[in-house]
User: What shape does this take?
Amino acid sequence: MFVRRFVLTVALLAALSGCASVPIGSLVQLARTDVMTTDLAELRAALWLPAELRPLPDTARLAVIVKREGQPDETLDLALIASDDPTDIAAFPPSSGHYLVYRLGADDRARLDAVRSAILADRRPGSMTFAVGIREFCRTGVIPSGPLYASSYIRTSEIGAFVPLIERFDLRSDPQLAAAFDAVAPC
Assistant: This one.
């Protein structure tokens, strides 16, 4: 039987996942989520970014990595769409940066649901991991020196509210990310 494990990591620009840890309180809430049955129409990923960084259009992605015993890993690359639901952004307090909330479109929800159905039918042990990423940014002004913090959140149908995945991760603490800021073009 497929192990119903929900692991969600966040990648910004390239490889943020693995560089920060999920708060313990969030792990408790995430344990209530079953990735195989969660309502994909309610799934939301959110990022808080400094005001100086903006994602370029159509660069938010959800990578779904499926690992099954005896088979090579399978990665499904899905587009994330900016949520147009005003209650999504209203869930966050005002800040000096900006919150971005994303959802899956209908076609990609159907693709992910087909993968979930195939996994359930297969019944091999395995796991499913999600990685949220923004592939390209532009800058709205001068990117300040010093720490450059970002945070990520998720909301599932089981949880019903946004829970933090990574809070105040210094993007400059990752050498690859820090080097990439020199090349970020103006918006």
About this structure: Residues 106-122 form the longest helix (17 residues). Helices lie at 24-30, 86-90, 106-122, 175-180.
